[in-house]
């Protein structure tokens, strides 16, 4: 069963647990804007699609909460362009 992306508000990051490791996206909320400053995947998870699954959860959360996204992280920006999520860009 796939793990869900969780919002760890105490650490200001979205997290996706994959086995014993965690992929995460640091963020800050600014009104109705979600600023994604950094996406990190452990080296052993890079290239497995884990960061993409994390971004899918981030986008789903933004849609549910009516937020726009500012992807400062180059990975997040590239993922949003490749996955045609332009309507969520602030």
Automatic annotation (TrEMBL):
The source's domain of life comes to: Bacteria
Domain N-acetyltransferase: start-end pairs: 6-90
* Entry GO MF terms: transferase activity
Write out the entry's keywords from A to Z. Answer: Transferase
PROSITE patterns, sorted? GNAT_YJDJ (PS51729)
Which PANTHER family does the UniProt entry name for this protein? BSR4717 PROTEIN, PROTEIN NATD1
Q: What is this protein called?
A: N-acetyltransferase
What organism is the protein native to? Azospirillum palustre
């Amino acid at each position: 069963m796939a793990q869900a992306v969780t919002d760890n508000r105490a650490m200001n990051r979205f997290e996706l647990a994959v086995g014993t490791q965690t992929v995460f996206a640091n963020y800050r909320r600014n009104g109705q804007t979600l600023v994604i400053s950094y996406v990190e995947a452990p080296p052993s998870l890079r290239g497995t699609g884990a960061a993409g699954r994390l971004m899918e959860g981030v986008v789903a959360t933004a849609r549910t909460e009516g937020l726009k996204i500012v992807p400062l992280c180059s990975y997040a920006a590239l993922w949003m362009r490749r996955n045609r999520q332009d309507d969520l860009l602030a």
